Amino acid sequence: MIRLSNIQLPLDHNTTALENSILSMLEISAEQLVSFNVFRRGYDARKKTNIMLIYTLDIETTCDQDLLIKFADHQQVKITPDLNYHPVAQAPATLTERPIIIGFGPCGLLAALVLAQMGYKPIVLERGKEVRERTKDTFGFWRKKILNTESNVQFGEGGAGTFSDGKLYSQVKDPKQYSRKVLNEFVAAGAPDEILYVSKPHIGTFKLVAMVEKMRAQIIELGGEIRFSARVDDLHIEDGQVTGVTLANGERIHSKHIAVAIGHSARDTFEMLHNKGIYIEAKPFSVGFRIEHEQSSVDKARFGPNAGNEILGAADYKLVHHCKNGRSVYSFCMCPGGTVVAATSEENRVVTNGMSQYSRNERNANSAIVVGIDPSDYPGGPLAGIEFQRKLESHAFVMGGSNYDAPAQTVGAFLKGETPKALGRVIPSFKPGIKLTDLSDALPDFCIEAIREAIPAFNKKVKGFAFEDALMTGVETRTSAPINIKRDAKSLESINTKGLYPAGEGAGYAGGIMSAAIDGIKIAEAMALSINEKVK
Ligand code: FAD
To answer: Which CATH number fits the domain that encloses residue 13?
Structure first.
């Protein structure tokens, strides 16, 4: 097949325009074109009155080879890469050892699925509950302020991204096309087909819940085992080789191949790993606030007269500003038409994040506006970043009224350094609730200074960003793990513990659903190859 890229057509192009573009670009007749499908569809909205759709197409013709020769020097015409997933191993007939996956977020899910598909019958240990029970606990916290520290936004089947916007794009390098494998598995589990071709696919919370259940069923059908409410509290290591785990209920499970895919909020488990001597380093992350605007104002700023167009959907944005004090401020995890959610997994702490449904039709747009920080801001060893996060989250809890409401401030008041007297046009979506206050005390001074400088700069890119009624809610501290569990670049094992595979966001190898899922596939392959090597 032939891949044609960068085909630009107007937003309102008719149904035959794509085919006509192919014929004229390749200089072939309609009879020579056998079929085509859209590999990717994005848009260029730099000119709001002339928004263009940009297509990448995969095409089959009666003369593929001739065309590839004819257009050999043409940047837009290439051979379609192999998008099929090819398993790297098959489990031996007599499997003497089953790999363990700790954590059932996107990383653990894909690791377990791929291992199961290759015949390794993995055992998954997940501290939280299965997704329907977890949904009740999570929504219970948002509605009634009753937090279950083992079953919440961060912990439970599906991991941290289950109650999310379900954005699936990532900027990681992916030469082996693992992201295609992830998308295909998601579609097979019920995700909409369009995630295969839109340039910024997203799924939304309720679809994610159903998909996770289907993927779990497939793993079990293939001989895998998934245990919920199974928190790993201890790791056994003999002569630098991991040999098993102990669960919170005291049960011991033996394996010499264990993946640690525990996400960025498993602070107790990070401490356990550190105490066991697993090599960990402190790593940079970011802190800030969630900002909310009316979605209609973001649509207008981004799409002008085309705001509301069905193909474009609810508008997003991506913003960066480099500040005079040397810090960078950027927008993160933007959720068009979504809500701001309470994302703590620990008592008496307040953490914000964002989610939306597939329809993205809530009143507000939200995103985190965060400042990059690094270990020099929180000196004190590998786990010092966790204490830094905890301090900010505890302080936010007190600022919000010590009842899980979050502290919030209108942008107008924030820029002036005043406590707002009342809300304006932007109605807060955060549940359980917010308390209007002065946020300048919620983060270190250098962060506040940087965000105050960035908001007017962002207003130049997205008109209305500095609207005085826009609302900021805090604090956003769980942007990524504050640690890196170092692993060997080739074997993917911990650099000082054989058989232990640090993986996903919690170990510092992913930042989002897609990159965590891709890392899960890599880990599964490394574990499978190592198991086979030992059987020889
Ligand atoms: P996680 O998903 O965090 O999964 C780790 C799992 O390990 C958890 O289920 C946890 O319960 C379990 N665990 C932890 N410790 C133990 C233990 N000791 N024993 C057993 N189990 C344990 N990313 C995007 O790309 N797009 C988005 O739209 C998006 N929105 C988000 C919205 C919210 C509200 C949140 C919280 C996150 C969002 N993210 C989003 C980030 C994304 O969810 C994470 O990057 C991703 O889930 C990381 O995957 P993971 O598998 O590495 O870890």
So the answer is: 3.30.70.2700
Pull the structure tokens for residue 523: 């880990």
Q: Which of 198-202, 410-414, 420-424 has the lowest mean pLDDT?
A: 198-202
95 assigned to some structural domain: no
Rounded to an integer, the average pLDDT of 270-278 is 98
Tell me whether residue 321 is in a domain. yes
Highest mean pLDDT, choosing among 12-16, 160-164, 170-174, 520-524: 520-524
- What integer pLDDT is reported at residue 357 of this predicted model? 84
Could you tell me where the DSSP H helices lie in 118-254?
Answer: 131-144, 178-188, 205-221
Query: Is the Cβ atom of 153 under 6 angstroms away from ligand 1?
Result: yes
What length does the chain have?
Answer: 536
The span from the CA of 45 to the CA of 200, in Å, is 14
Q: What is the DSSP string of 309-353?
A: -TTT-S-----EEE-TTS-EEEEEEEEEEEEEEE---STT---EE
Complex ipTM: 0.99
Domain with residue 224: its CATH number is 3.50.50.60
> What would the mean pLDDT of 203-221 be, rounded to a whole number?
91
Residue 453 belongs to some domain of the structure: yes
Question: Separation of 149 CA from ligand 1 center, angstroms?
Answer: 15
- Report the b/e string of 433-461 with b at 16+ CB within 10 A: bbebbbbbebbeeebbbbbbbbbebbbee
Closest residue by Cα to atom 11, ligand 1, is 155
Atom of ligand 1 nearest to the CA of 166: 28
Q: Which of 163, 164, 485 has most ligand 1 atoms within 8 Å of its beta carbon, as the pocket-test mutant? A: 164
pLDDT digit string, tens, across residues 295-305: 999 999 999 99
For strands 225-227 and 123-125, give the pairing. parallel
Q: Are 237 and 291 found together in one domain?
A: no
CA angle (360 as vertex; 354, 362 as ends), nearest 5: 75
Task: Round the average pLDDT of the chain to a whole number and report it.
Answer: 96
133-164 as b/e, with b when 16 or more CB fall inside 10 Å? Answer: bbbebbeebbeeeebbebbbbbbbbbbbbbbb
Domain co-membership, 169 together with 208: yes
